[in-house]
Amino acid sequence: MNDFIELHQGILKNLEYLRKLNGYTLEYVGDSLGISKSGYRKIEKGSIHISLKHLHTLSLIYKVPLDKILFTNLASYQRTN
């Protein structure tokens, strides 16, 4: 169970990191996913779960492979590459 929690927290950190890196607002990302700003804020904060469909859409928006969002600490990865 701890592995799932760590994976989920890593994904949320990556989503926030990518949004800020690209200079996107919560409203812009929410609109891109067809949800409200507050709905997307809840996703980033972990209050509600993100769907695989939304994760896929975000990977296209950010031009980052889905496996990188899921399994890589992008903030650390970007600093070393």
Description:
The chain has one domain (1-71): lambda repressor-like DNA-binding domains (434 Repressor (Amino-terminal Domain)), CATH 1.10.260. It is built from six helices and no strands. It has helices at residues 2-21, 26-33, 37-45, 52-62, 66-71, 74-80. Helix 2 (26-33) packs across helix 3 (37-45). The longest helix is centred in the N-terminal third of the chain and has 20 residues, at 2-21. The mean pLDDT is 93.
Rg is 12 Å
Largest beta-sheet characterization:
none
- How many separate domains make up the residues? 1
Return residue spans where pLDDT drops below 50 for at least 5 consecutive residues.
none
Beta fraction of the residues? under 5%
What structural class results from the helix and strand content?
mainly alpha
Layout: helices, strands, pairs:
Elements (H helix, E strand, L loop, with lengths): L1 H20 L4 H8 L3 H9 L6 H11 L3 H6 L2 H7 L1
Q: Keywords for this structure?
A:
DNA binding; 81 residues; globular; 434 Repressor (Amino-terminal Domain); 6 helices; Helix-turn-helix; Cro/C1-type_HTH; mainly alpha; Lambda_DNA-bd_dom_sf
Short recap of the structure:
The chain has 81 residues and is mainly alpha-helical. The protein has six helices and no strands. Helix content is 75%, strand content 0%.
